[in-house]
Amino acid sequence: MSKAAACAPAEPGSSEFLDDAVAGLTRSPKILPGKYLWDETGSDLFDQICHAPDYYPTGREMGLLAEAAADVARRIGPEVKVVEFGSGASRKIRTLLDALERPAVYVALDIAGDYLDAAIHRLAPDYPSVVMMPVHADYSKAVELPAGVPGRAVLGFFPGTSIGNFSPEEAGAFLAEARRTLGPSLFLVGADPTRDEDRLRRAYGGADGLMAAFHLNLLARMNRELGADFDLGNFRHGVRICNEPFRVEAHLVARRAATYRLGGRTITFEAGESIRTDTSHKYDPDAFRALAAQNGWSPVALWLDPERSFSLHLFQG
Ligand SMILES: C[S@@+](CC[C@H](N)C(=O)[O-])C[C@H]1O[C@@H](n2cnc3c(N)ncnc32)[C@H](O)[C@@H]1O
């Protein structure tokens, strides 16, 4: 039997969602925080995106993880507590749990509570000696880990290029906060150095239409949870590649002028006006190491695929 531990949920409530949505849609340009993409439907869609041939980050990172796992296991030693930020479907963690010597605890931290619980339910039977601790929390804020968790050493894990969803300033703050949360530890972080614009447009603009569905679900979520009346047919998904800093932005663009209701407010769109629904910053490995070093993490090892389309960094803090 796997051991399980409960933890109090700390997901943003619907009033925080409403406040952020109203604030983001009544300013110019319009922005919605990407963390609201991750309800159960969004998480399911993202899992399908990970299998789309054009969405290169998942396959590249899985390849690097398979290369890195034994080295990470040797450096950290036995009976480790692994803490994953944004655990999603908890697939990549299997490579680490398989390589580590007698891993003690897996703390899986995610904003999508039901999806998190289901993922841990699927994972736990395959690792009966590992204490499974799902923690329902928003890692863009301070996170407290459950107290009294066993484990000789701590290994943080932040895969999936999620660090790129923060601006560089926010990423620095996240890294500093993760150092506080994890304490003395090793931290394995995925970062995407891709600059090939065709590859980026295929991955973020297409993925078999799944990317459009993933972003449009944010409007559907506001209709479902906040009583809004957005007409999804009036919006198309598009990507913009921007510089300084280099990043891919996801937008929902209004086809024609319209007004909608949200939380007692009127939200007005001109034709062609867009909402930025997510951003993915792309980090050159040296620049990312420098950012981590400024925020409490010394570089230990780097795995980079030959096409420089993904990087896995191991830090010590
Ligand atoms: C890109 S997916 C990565 C999933 C998985 N780690 C992987 O690499 O395949 C991002 C994950 O982070 C979670 N997430 C996004 N923003 C979050 C936040 N602010 N706090 C906690 N979890 C968040 C999402 O629910 C999702 O499961």
TrEMBL record:
<dbReference type="Pfam" id="PF10017">
    <property type="entry name" value="Methyltransf_33"/>
</dbReference>
<keyword id="KW-0808">Transferase</keyword>
<keyword id="KW-0489">Methyltransferase</keyword>
<dbReference type="InterPro" id="IPR029063">
    <property type="entry name" value="SAM-dependent_MTases_sf"/>
</dbReference>
<dbReference type="InterPro" id="IPR019257">
    <property type="entry name" value="MeTrfase_dom"/>
</dbReference>
<feature type="domain" description="Histidine-specific methyltransferase SAM-dependent">
    <location>
        <begin position="19"/>
        <end position="316"/>
    </location>
</feature>
<dbReference type="InterPro" id="IPR035094">
    <property type="entry name" value="EgtD"/>
</dbReference>
<dbReference type="InterPro" id="IPR051128">
    <property type="entry name" value="EgtD_Methyltrsf_superfamily"/>
</dbReference>
<dbReference type="InterPro" id="IPR017804">
    <property type="entry name" value="MeTrfase_EgtD-like"/>
</dbReference>
<protein>
    <submittedName>
        <fullName>Histidine N-alpha-methyltransferase</fullName>
    </submittedName>
</protein>
